[in-house]
């Protein structure tokens, strides 16, 4: 069952619009999430204006975390709602579940970020109306949201009532993060609600104003201000003639004392300044009105698309749309200039994962920013630098040294914020402990890996000297303290972890974790030598902090003696962890076929799943992708085939990586199948899986599957390789990447690749050839 339609865009909007083609109140969550609008500062779920049972209204402002009580962890609070409108027509409440609806269409226009909804409504009495709703979150001014509603009575003159305001009763599934605060209505059209998060004391100012027209002229209205507990609104009543159009505009502004501007300010000054500015901004934007605000925002989107577009000529138009969908979300999920905040696993589109950042950012999302917007990638890595304090605390709390990154991150000072308790065990009924915060430790190496990738791509020395070296050294130091001597094997190992595959807990020597830890330590060891030889001032600075001589020696010992699982002689398969091959194999057909994830839990509990050769998501496969030159193609192929057969792809992170690796191995059909699968994680026919928000890592993965996979981009051994290979379905792919400050426009056809260098001279490896492309020049190579 799907009510999504991806073929409605035409002309200049061909493959630019995502459409909901019918209203079905059972599936409100899907479009609330995937039609989410935002600008990195805030995200607004696309809950409908009128209310329905099952809706989840949500507005999240980045970095405003609050802890509901001592038993909970910091989460992004749901801000007072400004989207709800209560509309009455002829004295009867309006809702699409009453009367009949024709020509229903709700679209997200990826080109300009606008969401529109239109339909023809016949009420129970038989009167007919045309409705059109529009909404935008400004890309021009991060504080601004605007909405417009047009209602045209078709058959009768009618009285229309609209109640609109600010609703502070919203919660995060019951947790109320704001105190009630102050509220007022002034000049009969401006509304203000100032509330404060209960524990973190972030002051939030939400403002709204209304403008009402009939047929383009200010309407004659009667109004009634309503102030209630946690709610302020105004009820407007207008008589509208048959054939005339009532237009109701709502212009809103959101500010907080956490805004970047107030970083380092005295609290009282920030509060006063914020209130003043917020009020002033409201006057300005109200004056501009919806259409001008939309125009301004559109211009910003145009710039984004001019730089970021990936063009695909495919037999399936959906591929192009899905890529744009991914790029749209990637550009609204991150506040590009604020290094105090990370990216949530559901971005700012829902309550899922409480707004926390995971390895999703470093491994799945950052490659997009590293290769297209270096400054944003740097900001995101600076966030990890600022999180070092919490990471060091976590290391000490767990009996280690150095920096042990939290599995889930929120405030930079927080340290670990993974909740302790999760779902219930299907067999025992007991609440399950979430172990990832304790033993899913590869994230520490993932952060170091990302720092180095960023440096290779950008050659940003300044970043390395201020932040990068310190992250790599301190994470490597953590691993030296984390290794355990294994008498039997006569080497170091890493025991009791969860690898990327979260269907396996308490495992020893997870291949991914050990290899990445090795990578992290080897890199640190190499950098210590390089710093000593080439950057003595930087070396001296870190010498004081780390005792580099001693750390260097420890690293050498650990690198030489760490056990890293290798392919078995007879089979060529790398054991995912000690004893993986001894686990029982079960028939996975039923689960693999299921369109819903996690169905294995209907039959088995975690203890049982732990004892089977079944993977939730890629594990060894991700290792083969990241450390691309570690194993031969033959080994990669054997491992890909072995592990894919046992993988349920129950995590949204899984399919994109499988697509890239399959393409590397020439398994073209599979690569395309997994690419489509990744695209369908949010856009597919499964109508409930995005309810708690879009899957940020998956949208990063879609971009990677196109550019790193079919587009063939890989950054290995400090060099850029471009070895593209298109799937049967595609005729052409064009993308842009930035390599060492030079923009490369890469156009791939079935038999050749053209690389146009819009910047300074660069070297690129295509096939086996190392090619120098001078400034402004282009090369064409057969593939
Ligand atoms: O980080 C992922 C993890 O790999 C699988 N579970 C969900 C997390 C957040 O997306």
UniProtKB/TrEMBL annotation:
List the active-site residues: 502 (proton donor)
| InterPro entries the UniProt entry points to | 6-hairpin_glycosidase_sf, 6hp_glycosidase-like_sf, Gal_mutarotase_sf_dom, GH65_N, Glyco_hydro_65_C, Glyco_hydro_65_M, Glyco_hydro_65_N, Malt_Pase/Glycosyl_Hdrlase
Entry keyword Transferase? yes
Gene Ontology biological process terms, A to Z: carbohydrate metabolic process
Q: Where is the Glycoside hydrolase family 65 central catalytic domain?
A: 324-704
* Entry keyword set: Glycosyltransferase, Hydrolase, Transferase
Listed GO molecular functions? Answer: carbohydrate binding; glycosyltransferase activity; hydrolase activity, hydrolyzing O-glycosyl compounds
Q: Which domain of life is it from?
A: Bacteria
Which residue range or ranges hold the Glycoside hydrolase family 65 N-terminal domain? 19-258
Asked if the Swiss-Prot or TrEMBL record annotates the protein with the keyword Iron, the reply is no
Sites binding substrate sit at 359-360, 616-617
Q: Which family does it belong to?
A: Belongs to the glycosyl hydrolase 65 family.
Q: What is the protein name stated in its UniProt record?
A: Hypothetical glycosyl hydrolase
Organism, scientific name: Anaerocolumna xylanovorans DSM 12503
Q: What is the lineage of its organism?
A: Bacteria, Bacillati, Bacillota, Clostridia, Lachnospirales
